[in-house]
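User: Quick one: structure for sequence A, then sequence B.

Assistant: Sequence A:
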Amino acid sequence: MATRRPKAPVTDPLRRAIVGSEIPLLVLAQATGVARASLTRFVRGQTSLRLDVADVLATYFGLELEEQKERSMAKHADTQKARLQRVKAYLMTKPGTPCECVEIRKATGVAKNRIDYEGSLSSDPEIRRERLRDEKGKYRVYWTYVRPAK
């Protein structure tokens, strides 16, 4: 099974610039003052470069880092609110019927670990959370929509 390589927002573009330029590493080493052996190992993915060396190469190729806009908490809250509404709407189609997380995930597309994210669903007075045994004797979490008393 292949392991997932972590994101490399600095080294990947720099490596692509070096390889894509098709400049011989000897010429690049002479132009930048970076050792050819270091460039060779970096291009092959065997080692990384020190930041000062990466700065020299980035300047040579005209590369710059830009800050990414952080995901706002308001957007995160809206996303969770939308998830909660989808789950609740699904449960409302089956009032009084316990629904397991897997069933809710299949019907709404909300991941199991996001169904009750930070207690958002279990704090709703119309939704009841229960731990019941399934046919194999394992405890499962079930969610039930309970009609509000009038």
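Sequence B:
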Amino acid sequence: MIRHSTMTLPISNPAVAAAVRDPLTKSVLELLRRFTRSATPSEIGKVGGIEFRALRRSLDLLEEAGLIGRRPAEGARREPSFHALGDAFIITFDAADKAQVALVEEIDGVMADHARARIREALTGSLSSVHPV
């Protein structure tokens, strides 16, 4: 498993944009970055408290974007395993491209809204384990 210290990916790539736009998918990436080895969907779901269907969608988005790698099931293990391809990710955009700037601003808004909702849930004691921060 080759893991780069830093990977640079363009927001102009639709797969990258889709992966970084979704808070749950970003949480799955963070979980995979913290594993010191490849992890199966069952392991990731258990650690993150993530429902299987949502986890599969996130893993597919991350793989398509080139942020994670997949290892096929081996031996007695019936599930493939996944690993982050980098320790850090830099998402680039062209500041002169209005569409890319608007996309970055939209993603920033989505992440801010998600953070506010998680804080509100934590303060009211209704924190859900389905969407880790």
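Confidence is low (pLDDT under 50) at residues 129-133. The chain is about 50% helix and 15% strand.

User: Thanks, that's what I needed.
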